[in-house]
Amino acid sequence: MVYLATYGPIEVAAKSSATAEKDDDCKELLREALRLHVLSNPAILKCYGVCVKQDVTYMLLERCHCTLRAYLDRYGAFSPGLAVRLTMHLAFGLSQLHSAGLVHRDVKTGNAMLSREVTPVARLADLGSARRLKSLVTSVTSNTSSYGIRGSTGTCSRPTMNHKM
Question: Looking at the domain that runs over 66-132, which CATH code has it been given?
Answer without folding.
Answer: 1.10.510.10
